[in-house]
Amino acid sequence: MTGISLSISDLEVTGQGGRRILSVPRLEVPAGTAVAVRGPSGAGKSTLLYALAGIIAPSRGCITWGDTDIAGLDDSGRAAFRRGTVGFIFQEHLLFEELSALGNAGVTALYAPRRDRRRIRDSAEGLLTRFGLGKSAARRSDTFSGGERQRIAVVRALAGDAPVILADEPTASLDRANADALADDLMRLARDDGRTLVAVSHDPSLHDRADRVIDVRDGQLELPEAQNA
Q1: Which tens digit of pLDDT belongs to each residue from 146-193?
Q2: Are 207 and 35 contacting, i.e. CB atoms less than 8 angstroms apart?
Q3: Residue among 193, 127, 125, 126 nearest 164 (CA)
Q4: In what order do the strands lie in the sheet with 68-69?
Q5: Quick check: 216 and 36 in contact, CB under 8 A?
Q6: Which conformational region is residue 61 in: left (phi greater than 0), alpha (psi within -120 to 50 degrees), or beta?
Q7: Considering the entire predicted model, what is its pTM?
């Protein structure tokens, strides 16, 4: 796995009426770093994550992954970048209820080049086993508990072997043991596999495992100056 770095400069995201909801003057994240983002509800954490994924477009500034400034791309360009580069773990599971656990976990294979489809499906199957769901892979997704559905969603984000993992409250619906296990797995993806991880979370246990912790308050990033260089 070859990770990619993140560089943000002069970033602003505005809402209705031009109200500024997020401002990031500068942030540098080397490839293979695990970053936790914390802060009160409504502070702008998820806005930051969605901007990093290219799901929402900033009103100004640069969001550069490797050599690609996704802020300069149009909607289709950002979507193409996201498909090929980002594994996104949503706070809501967003599963296809009629599909099996394996069908959901490997759904990105449907949109991948033909040469990658078998690899993605095999990866999804192996990850389901790793997360304790291998024996239930053929069951419909709507028969699983909330915590199990979250694990399926995590596997879906990881199965494509993306160099960037973005996670929105990934441990929120898990019991403590499974939350800690997932946090360990996410950190391992950064440290062992070289992926870049940015996880929005209220979970202090996940914060403690991260390489860096960034606070977001009232749409502003707060971090030590030494971390911002």
Answers
A1: 778 888 988 898 888 889 999 999 888 778 887 888 888 888 878 887
A2: no
A3: 193
A4: 68-69, 60-65, 6-14, 20-29, 220-222, 212-217, 34-38, 196-200, 164-168, 86-89
A5: no
A6: left
A7: 0.86
